[in-house]
Design goal:
Order of helices and strands: EHEHEEEHEHEHEEHEHHHH
InterPro entries: PHP_dom, PHP_domain, Pol/His_phosphatase_N, Pol/histidinol_Pase-like
Shape: globular
Largest sheet: 5 strands, mixed
Number of strands: 10
Protein name: PHP domain-containing protein
Organism: Schaedlerella arabinosiphila
Distance between the termini: 38 Å
GO molecular function: 5'-3' DNA exonuclease activity; 5'-3' RNA exonuclease activity
Radius of gyration: 18 Å
Oligomer: single chain
Number of helices: 10
């Protein structure tokens, strides 16, 4: 089953120029059977699919719910939760990555760094958090080893990172424009129909095939050295959003992610490291 595991649609992402409908049609024309909608810090794009398209059109195409979460300290993280699990906290960016990992695992989901070796602040391996605590890589479930909007060097390093830590590899286009859709893929050894089935494959460390063609018309490429402006703009945007949503996030944290005296997930990983 050929799917795109990193998709941004305009119903959920302000910077996307591709509607859910167009995205599906473009992917189907290129031989894809599914996609994971991963808008930044929101499920609006997936909700649009669920409320307006699901069961009415494209019944031969699988659309799964994901999210690209903007952490406070570790860049962008792709998250997939089981169907039916609705957590408002994942739509309030700014959690620390260690808290995010606990939260996702406690609720049956999986997660991994998007474009892990890409731009500073946005990519896990280029953050202070990774340099201070590289062992956090052990707690992710997968790594995005091919992102068509990244450079060859970035993807090569992402592949090495996945291999070093023995993580499942996934591929995604990270497309925001029509001509980028379908340039990256993940091939699953068997079809899936829901998030739980994909999560189960990842838990079993099923090998996925990833690859695609690099997209050389990204905003970063056009800006050249001035792309630092884009990088720092994202940092300020993310930091500002984290501060603005702190009160709401803290309230939801108490409701959806209470602190246990002993965290069994932490004990599991401590035991594995020991």
């Amino acid at each position: 089953m050929k799917i795109d595991m990193h998709c941004h649609v305009k119903e959920g992402s302000l910077d996307s120029k591709v509607s859910v409908e167009e995205y599906i049609m473009l992917l189907k024309a290129k031989g894809f059977q599914g996609m994971v909608i991963t808008d930044h810090n929101t499920y609006k794009g997936y909700r649009y699919w669920k409320n307006h398209i699901k069961g009415k059109r494209h019944t031969d195409f699988v659309v799964l719910k994901g999210i690209e979460y903007d952490t406070r300290d570790a860049g962008h993280i792709l998250v997939i939760m089981p169907e039916g699990v609705k957590m408002r906290l994942l739509e309030l960016r700014g959690m620390r990555v260690s808290v995010l990992i606990d939260f996702v695992h406690r609720n049956g989901g999986v997660l991994g760094p998007a474009h892990p070796c890409g731009e500073k602040y946005l990519s896990f391996a280029n953050t202070k958090r990774y340099r201070r605590s590289p062992e956090l890589m052990k707690r992710f479930d997968f790594v995005e080893s091919f992102n068509c909007c990244e450079s060859e060097e970035s993807n090569e390093n992402a592949m090495k990172l996945a291999q070093k830590y023995g993580k499942v590899r996934v591929g995604g286009s990270d497309a925001h424009k029509p001509d980028c859709v379908g340039r990256a893929y993940t091939i699953l050894p068997e079809p899936v129909t829901c998030e739980t089935e994909l999560i189960s494959m990842i838990h079993k460390k099923t090998a996925f095939e990833t690859g695609g063609n690099h997209y050389n018309k990204t905003t970063k490429e056009k800006m050249g050295k001035v792309k630092l402006i884009l990088t720092y703009s994202f940092w300020f945007y993310n930091k500002g959003g984290e501060l603005l949503r702190r009160h709401g996030r803290n309230a939801k944290m108490e409701q959806e992610n209470p602190i246990d005296p002993i965290d069994p997930i932490e004990l599991y990983y401590i035991g594995k490291q020991g």
